[in-house]
Amino acid sequence: MQRVTLTIDGKQISVRPGTTILKAARSVGASIPTLCHLPGRRTRAVCRICVVAVQGSARLVPACATPVSEGMQVDTQAADVVAVRRTLMEFILAEHRDCGDPDCQIERLAAELGVGQSRFHAPESTRRNVFPSDFVSVLSQRCVHCDRCIEACAADRNVLARSGHGATVQVDFADGESSRETACSVCGDCVSVCPAGGLIPA
Length: 202
Known about the structure:
- The chain has five helices and nine strands; from the N terminus they run ββαβββααβαββαβ.
- The protein is of the alpha+beta class.
């Protein structure tokens, strides 16, 4: 079978064509943080926390959505890569705010990246709770728009979607329906994958 040879953090490896940088990097023990990534689900690459440097590329690329190529040279821990991840984490923290949950995945990831607090602020006016469900309580002020709940739902009923644009974006039932009007099976997958504590059982 054809293989692709590349170098990640100085280590040369050979992987199958179509393998993402993230998967290849993890196969050699390289640590790349992720947030929106859900193994086995469609890649959305909305958080960009997994950015890496690829020699010859003018921009950092998301490791979760970028396939390897022959001769590619990847640096997962370059100074500019780490700096960008920390800045992105600050934006995410501004969206999430301090939830006070010691098990919060967002705050744990921030700590891993060395980010204690954010320099940025997301206006409270952008927060609306219109998620019409009798089964899930929404703490919209915690949502970081990672879309993990949407992807988890897509594997079952596909009734969750983004609504709004820019500062007004939020998770909603598709077409603005209520949970009673959708094919929601109350499986709880959306709750189980939320890293921010924004979705909890009602």
